[in-house]
Specification:
587 residues
Length: 587
């Protein structure tokens, strides 16, 4: 990460992106970057070929050459980035291809942070030069809040104004929280225009974003040297936590689950589709949950009401041993009423039926009427719909509180569950040609090598903290039990020992988190002054408390506390630290 200064603004550069453009400690712009999304809406990486930098104390310039990948492998890109002493930052690109290819999106994107901006006034400059006063969405907007843009500006806490100017395309904005990103994204080309579109040889693509700052300082803002965790006095009840369960036979062997009784899990959710050996899978899953003395939920995805009926009839004799039935459609993004009617007819207990979507919150947000004919609502979360870097994963835990709060509003007081909650998308619901939707890595698209690292442990802790603070979710279902999407490796070992080098039976670090949560029923609200570096989950039960500290940074960090009587802690780099505390007192 290269640190840069442009007059009064500080920022960082990494792998073609500008990050964290800030005025003092206030983040004005989260990120500027170039994106290529193919015909399946899958984001494909650019390969940096060369960088030439000139850096002074309060200014910089860079010329960067990059190459596309996958369908755009013949695309040559030149980035030109500058920062002046006056506080003006430019990010421009030009590109051309030697071979035609199709794209859904190819152009510049800019992210505004949600924190501090939700509900704040902004000024929009339209493509024809007209100026319009608006606001960043507070409630998560299901549709594009800003259209036909050539500029957008907003006032900082200092009283200064940050202005963004877009050239080379018509831009528009979407509320990225729909997909759990903690940002508002302004992008091109407008989604209303036909896609995919062809990029042809001889065509030159060129766009530029300019950031400027104006006005006098009214407030002095300085950066803290140490992270401060502020702890609230409220005791918040934790949602019920469980794990996903694969229908693969190797995942349904009772002996694989020795030790799972020591974890803070109350249910397993078995995912089924119409091609499964339904009865056998459910019976084996029941043996596992009975051994662990926890509940079994079923998540059924069917092609039609007729197929759903056949699936349910195959297990009707053991339906009373199953706590809940999650009903989803393989072809529609929210559960159709016909599916719910079939489930009600066969199960005879409406309270056991949960609908909604096994996709993203955006599907509920765009089809809010879908909750009217169900008693319980579900949606899923993963932090990598759009970007895959560590920083985005860390930032996106913060948006989960807002998503949960908005889902509760849409559900009109009905119970809401979130699951599965995973690091990577389980599949691409927007793929028009799934056979061509290849992974960006050597692993399958649904598998993240970080699943077996401390980062998954820390990310999950912050996910639980954020969702719990919404005080609106009933149950959370994370990951899977076993294998490379799980919390412990199978006894037979990794499916790909070269690219996912786990050992047979290896407990991944996130296992430790679920084990440490055992016996705790509540959480205390926490807020970090430097959440991308250090953050915290505090769980309690009576007079007992456990403080779970995550150092997301690559260097040692000191953390101090406010609102709770704890001495400062020094955290090792890239780590999760557990502190046992008895009788924690408020300050």
């Amino acid at each position: 990460m290269r640190k840069l200064v442009a007059g009064p603004l500080t920022l960082e550069y990494s792998e073609g992106s500008l990050w964290n453009i800030s005025n003092g400690s206030e983040e004005a712009i989260r990120r500027i970057y170039l994106v290529f999304q193919d015909i399946n809406w899958t984001s494909r990486p650019f390969v940096i070929k060369d960088e030439i930098w000139q850096i002074a104390d309060r200014s910089f310039s860079a010329k960067i050459k990059a190459q596309g990948s996958h369908d755009a492998k013949d695309l040559s890109v030149e980035l030109e980035i500058t920062g002046s002493e006056s506080g003006e930052i430019t990010y421009g690109f030009s590109a051309s291809t030697a071979v035609s290819f199709m794209r859904n999106r190819l152009g510049l994107c800019l992210l505004h942070p949600v924190a501090g901006l939700a509900g704040r006034e902004c000024e929009l400059t339209k493509a024809d030069g007209a100026v319009e006063v608006s606001r960043f969405p507070d409630a998560i907007s299901p549709n594009q809040p800003f259209l036909n843009l050539s500029g957008i500006s907003h006032k900082l806490q200092s009283g200064q104004v940050v202005s963004v100017n877009f050239k080379g395309e018509i831009f528009e904005s979407e509320d990225h929280r729909n997909w759990s990103d903690a940002s508002y994204k302004t992008y091109c080309t407008p989604i209303s225009l036909p896609f995919p579109a062809q990029v042809t040889p001889g065509e030159v693509l060129s766009q530029k974003i300019t950031i400027s700052i104006s006005g006098e300082h009214t407030t002095a803002i300085s950066k803290n040297e140490s992270a401060v965790i502020t702890v609230g006095a409220e005791e918040i009840e934790l949602p019920e936590i469980g794990l996903g369960l694969s229908e693969e036979p190797a995942h349904l062997i009772v002996s694989e689950y020795a030790g799972f009784e020591d974890l803070a899990i109350k249910h397993l959710r078995l995912a089924l589709n119409g091609d499964s050996q339904i009865r056998s899978a459910v019976e084996k899953a029941l043996l596992v949950t009975k051994q662990l003395k926890i509940d079994l939920d079923l998540a059924i995805k069917a092609e039609s009401p007729e197929q759903l009926k056949a699936i349910l009839q195959s297990i009707i004799e053991i339906k009373d041993q199953i706590r809940s039935f999650y009903i989803f459609s393989a072809s529609e993004k929210t559960t159709p009423i016909g599916f719910i009617q079939v489930a009600e007819e066969l199960l005879g207990d409406k309270s056991k039926i949960i609908g909604g979507t096994d996709l993203y919150f955006t599907e509920l947000n765009r089809n809010q009427g879908s909750v009217d004919f169900i008693d319980q609502v579900n949606f899923s979360i993963n932090p990598q719909v759009h970007s895959f870097d560590d920083r985005t994963l860390i930032q996106n835990t913060a948006s989960q509180k807002a998503i949960a709060t908005n889902a509760h509003r849409i559900a009109k007081g009905k119970k809401v569950s979130i699951g599965p909650i995973t690091l990577r998308p389980r599949y691409n619901p927007n793929a028009t040609q799934p056979s061509k939707d290849l992974s960006n890595t050597a692993l399958p698209s649904s598998v993240d090598a970080r699943q077996r690292t401390w980062l998954a442990e820390g990310w999950t802790a912050m996910s639980i903290r954020s969702i719990a603070e919404s005080e609106s979710m009933s149950t959370l279902t994370y990951f899977e039990t076993l294998g490379w999407r799980g919390i412990r490796e199978l006894s037979t070992g990794s499916e790909d020992a070269l690219n996912f080098a786990s050992k047979a039976g290896e407990e991944f670090p996130v296992w430790r988190l679920f084990k440490n949560l055992k016996g705790f029923t509540h959480a205390r609200p926490t807020a970090s002054s430097l959440p991308e570096l250090v953050d915290c989950l505090i769980v309690t039960s009576g007079q007992k408390a456990k403080v779970i500290l995550v150092n997301f940074s690559t260097i040692e960090q000191e953390v101090k506390f406010s609102g709770i009587d704890l001495k400062p802690q020094t955290l090792t780099p890239e780590s999760v630290t557990y502190l046992e505390v008895t009788g924690v007192a408020n300050v």
